[in-house]
Amino acid sequence: MAAKADSYKKIAEFGKQLLQDSSLDHALSLIVEQAKDLVDADRCSIFMYDKEADMLWTKLADGVGKIAISTTSGIAGDTFTTGEAQVVNAPYEDKRFLAGIDKKSGYETRNMITVPIFDSQRKVIGIFQLLNKNGGNFLEEDLKVLTFFANYISGTLELSFLMKEK
Fold it and tell me: How many Cα neighbours within 13 Å face the side chain of 70?
């Protein structure tokens, strides 16, 4: 229980830091680093929804170039469609897993966690995807902490993208 309290304290401290910066790119970098730290993951990507193309694309992909996938492809697409966070500790055994991305990047995904990011209308606007928990598998506790974190930063992301559209 102490670890959970520490995670929420880290999120509150992070919120203060996030409010001090107005640059979306810098804010996204901070968000990715904080998400990785919260669950001790190797990599984090933020997929954002492109309504016109009906695609998910990485606004920030840790360690790789831009990734674009259909909203119905892969585990991230399933998270987008269902609106439900997921822990997948054996991705190569999951038929939804897009192994071609690993092959192209040379990175090996051992486990992953995907969490939807909702806007103020409770529509999914993006997905957090974290890869390879250091020292083991992702746990239900990781899912709870990242879900809380996604809800915490969702307003910042929604506002940033609304301002960019104008």
Answer: 6
Give long-range contacts, CB 8 A cutoff, 24+ apart: 53-59. 56/80, 56/126, 56/127, 59/28, 59/126
- The domain locations on the chain are 2-165
Which of the pair, 77 or 28, is modelled with greater confidence? 77
Q: Is the pTM of this model over 0.90?
A: no
Q: What is the CATH number of domain 2-165?
A: 3.30.450.40
User: Is 126 exposed, middle or buried, given 0-12, 13-18 or 19+ CB atoms closer than 10 A?
Assistant: buried
- Distance, in Å, from the CA atom of 1 to the CA atom of 84, rounded to the nearest integer, reads 24
Task: Give 25 or 72, the one with higher predicted confidence.
Answer: 72
**Alpha helix positions (H), the chain:** 2-19, 24-39, 74-82, 99-105, 140-165
pLDDT for position 155: 81
Helix (H, G, I), strand (E, B) or coil at 97: coil
